[in-house]
Design a protein that fits this description.
187 residues; Rossmann fold
């Protein structure tokens, strides 16, 4: 029987949910987290343990950067929802993305988002996220800490996040796609 994972008891953690492919920059996120000296904070990394997560973990061990970092492995949808709802913020440190769905998912749970300023992320997330340069670990750490400890800024990002996710829905996608097909077939 598989042992159930439990959500952390406090909301003093940052969360990342997704895979650990190199372009996701999870190693950079761990190194930035290490710069933050607040022992009451932790970093929760949610994702199926595979080659890439094992590699990130091994590199972090070499750098003695695992203090406060929790690898959950795969979690159920219910467990993920609980992890999102209790997080201080969601961090998306990618060097590049094709779209960037996980930050939008976090916003649906009322989690403020801190994101890389790369590729399409500012276009998708607009002003509903706080941005950092993923190559600048000091800036990343400062923004993570500042947003997590500033209740007014967190509340503002949560509000903007709820508004931003309204722009994206599968229903809206289907309606717009159907309109395109109708336009093509009715030429």
């Amino acid at each position: 029987m598989k042992k159930k994972k439990k959500a952390p008891l406090s909301n003093r953690y940052f969360i990342y949910a997704g895979n650990a492919y190199p372009h996701k920059n999870i190693g950079g996120l761990i190194r930035a987290f290490k710069i933050i000296k607040d022992k009451n904070l932790s970093l929760v990394l949610v994702g199926k343990e595979d080659y890439f997560y094992r590699r990130v973990k091994k590199e972090a061990e070499k750098e003695d950067a695992l203090a406060g970092v929790n690898f959950t492995g795969f979690v159920s949808d219910e467990e993920l929802a609980a992890l999102y709802r209790n997080a201080r913020l969601y961090c998306f440190p990618s060097f590049y993305e094709g779209f960037g769905l996980p930050p939008l998912e976090a916003m649906t749970y009322g989690v403020p988002v801190v994101s890389s300023d790369r590729s399409c992320l500012p276009e998708i997330l607009k002003d509903s996220a706080e941005y950092f340069n993923p190559d600048d670990l000091d800036q990343t750490a400062r923004i993570l800490y500042d947003i997590s400890s500033n209740e007014a800024k967190r509340a503002e990002l949560i509000k903007k996040g709820y508004e931003q996710v309204k722009k994206y829905s599968w229903e809206r996608c289907a309606i717009e796609t159907l309109a395109i097909y109708d336009g093509i077939f009715n030429l």
